[in-house]
Amino acid sequence: MLTEFTPFPALAGGMLIGLSAVLLMAFHGRIAGMTGILAGVLRPTAGDWGWRAAFLVGAIIAPVLVLAVSGQAVSFTNVVPVPLLIVGGIVVGIGVSFGGGCTSGHGVCGIARLSSRSIVATATFMLAAFATVYVARHILGAF
């Protein structure tokens, strides 16, 4: 399977993710963990729902805005069957509960704050991802 290498769009996207995390911390004193933000939309608390919903809407409509501004669609192909995506989502959701946060909260915000807990969590996420891809591609010969 060929993976496209797109360093400039990836750099721009990473910079925007970092900027959004900094702005959320500066203006609301909150960590930009997508799972926590989503949980706050589903189980709202006083004064929190609006910014959480706006953050999620922004993340969802960003590809539409990229298309409108640049004329280029954000390409996405799915090589994994939908039932496996659903199982994967459930497993990740369970992991987020046990890990006390997601890759964006730990990986983007936690490492930036030099949190040892987040550094260990992110290393664990990455090792699990490496192992999963290796097993799926090289041992099972799938995807």
UniProtKB/TrEMBL annotation:
Membrane topology: Multi-pass membrane protein
Location relative to the cell: Cell inner membrane
UniProt keyword annotation of Cell inner membrane present: yes
Keywords: Cell inner membrane, Cell membrane, Membrane, Transmembrane, Transmembrane helix, Transport
One GO CC term, this protein: plasma membrane
Top-level taxon: Bacteria
Pfam hit, one: Sulf_transp
Record-stated family: Belongs to the TsuA/YedE (TC 9.B.102) family.
Protein name, per record: YeeE/YedE family protein
Natural source organism: Paradevosia shaoguanensis
Upper taxonomic lineage: Bacteria, Pseudomonadati, Pseudomonadota, Alphaproteobacteria, Hyphomicrobiales
